[in-house]
Amino acid sequence: QFWKLPVRQSTGPLSTEACHLMQTCVPQSYFVSDYDPTIEDSYTKICTVDGKETRLDILDTAGQEEFGAMREQYMRSGEGFLLVFALNDRGSYHEVQKFHTQVLRVKDRDDFPIVLVGNKADLEQQRVISREDAQAFASDNGIHYMESSAKNRYNVDESFLELVKIIRRFQEMESTPPAAHHTGKQKSGGCPCVLL
């Protein structure tokens, strides 16, 4: 299996959150404390989830407003999204809420495989977004919420593995024909939804 996974991040210097998560997830053994945001970085990660090997094409996109059109292009092709914000930055939290709305608008759906990730869980004394607030937003929108620390490698791989599981469940539901109103006839030429 091969999936494209754009990682949504907040604007300007706040884009360090997704970068830190990405650099910790892929086979690199360092943490970058100062990050100069670029338009995009891509990574490939091979992982095994529930006995199935999956290759993830992970795109770490810049969150700057001037790249809005490019961001929508990534959203159209993405099969799952990590929305990453800093637990010590309220602005980044508000930005990922906007990204969530934008993903659903671009996909023209009420739901899609998304994991909300609160990064910098190691900075508990600087936290301004409570777990309860973030969990409430996630629950209200039917998405999964996790907290991570790229610095301590806490819940980094787990965030991506959880997203893979959610994508698989989503694809299984999309490819299962509805049982209701079955007339005994099958349409020819029909196919399950294909996610690029």
Automatic annotation (TrEMBL):
It is found in: Cell membrane. The keyword Glycoprotein does not apply. One of its GO terms (molecular function) is GTP binding. It holds the Pfam family Ras. It is a lipid-anchor. Gene3D superfamilies: P-loop containing nucleotide triphosphate hydrolases. One of its GO terms (cellular component) is plasma membrane. InterPro entries: P-loop_NTPase, Small_GTP-bd, Small_GTPase, Small_GTPase_Ras-type. Transmembrane segments: none annotated. Its main location: membrane. Keywords: Cell membrane, GTP-binding, Lipoprotein, Membrane, Methylation, Nucleotide-binding, Prenylation. It comes from the Eukaryota. Belongs to the small GTPase superfamily. Ras family. This is RAS related.
